[in-house]
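Practice set, problem 2.
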Amino acid sequence: MSLEYSAARGADLSDNIRSVEREIAEASPPSTSRPRLVPISKLKPASDIKALYDAGYRHFGENYIQELADKAEVLPRDINWHFVGALQSNKAKLLASIPNLFVLETLSSTKVADLIQKSLSSDRVSPLNVYIQVNTSGEDAKSGLDPLSASSDATATIATLALHVIRSCPGLNLLGLMTIGSWEASHDPTKPNPDFTSLKETRQHLQRILKEEGVQHSDLELSMGMSADFVQAVKEGSSSVRVGTRIFGERPKKNA
């Protein structure tokens, strides 16, 4: 897996990501920290990541576990990897073996949490961050747990998973919540995105439940916003945005 890239490709990638950063800066509410920008390099060569790494970037994300493992093996070890794809339980051990994995963004079951906890290396310096994935749009094609409401209690699925991670998985750190907005909402910037509103409300309800359960936990991050809707996500308080095609260009079709 080659890490060599042309000067022209490096310049294009730098221009693209700086353009995204300018839009993030313009959209960021006053007196708030800018959200983390995570370039998603799905199906793009490791050399693209190396080009942005050489330009000073350290957070990158992947959708496919084997692709992440292969790239992590050859790229610098101080990269902070985000896994943003669906994780099957039989791949939990492979994911946990990546030493510089920063966060699993798609946790949705206690089974997977337990498998990762069991598989984490004893040499790992800090807990592995996790986001709980929330299916805010209710679409069958999307993964994630149902959002919380004002009537939700500690038996609600998200709350159960959050409490399990906090109480039973010392190798994991509940960093926040993640969602993927619907196509329709993501392409209508004229009004607040209902999926982002739902995620913010879910965070509010979850924090209430955790407090009622006697759990002291810092503010939960929100990972929301991708290439089509990251500007709106930033305006609505996203902590971390995942941008792929706006930085790397259109992706090739995945081989069957």
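Problem 2, part (b): a different protein.
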Amino acid sequence: MRVMGVDPGLTRCGLSVIESGQGRKVIALDVDVVRTPSDEQLHRRLLIISDTVEHWMDTHRPDVIAIERVFANHNANTAMGTAQAGGVIALAAAKREIDVHFHTPSEVKAAVTGNGRADKAQVTEMVTRILALQAKPTPADAADALALAICHCWRAPMIARMAAAAAMAAEQRRTYQAKLRAAR
């Protein structure tokens, strides 16, 4: 499975692509950070992010996009910009019929480090080890994008089992309700 990990942001948007192998083996294929000037108008900044992300999707052909879920932030402007960047990315994926999954920062940290409260240095260190990189990815947005992709690769089997269980439960509910209606 090829996963594109995205750490959304208006000033810096981390992008990565990794491929999963047997078990927990993952291989980094590409990583970068899209930067937009803070003095540029919002719609122009979102266009820069959109154009870059669309190029990545068309070039790398990911099977799924893993985006960091926006969490409550003390700075509402930062949270809003992050959400807008994430929305642009999800829209680009939808246009290409690529599945999108959102993961919280604590889910990503727990998956990569074993600690949902790990700091950025711990995440970067573990990403470097897991992917056997020669150097630590910088800035932190690049490491976070790689961590998101790793998290999704490792959580994907559980996500699929949960979806299958939910579908089976829904089907059983429909069957039971149909039997109740027929008995009336």
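Answer key, part (b): The chain has one domain: 2-183. The chain has a mean pLDDT of 94.
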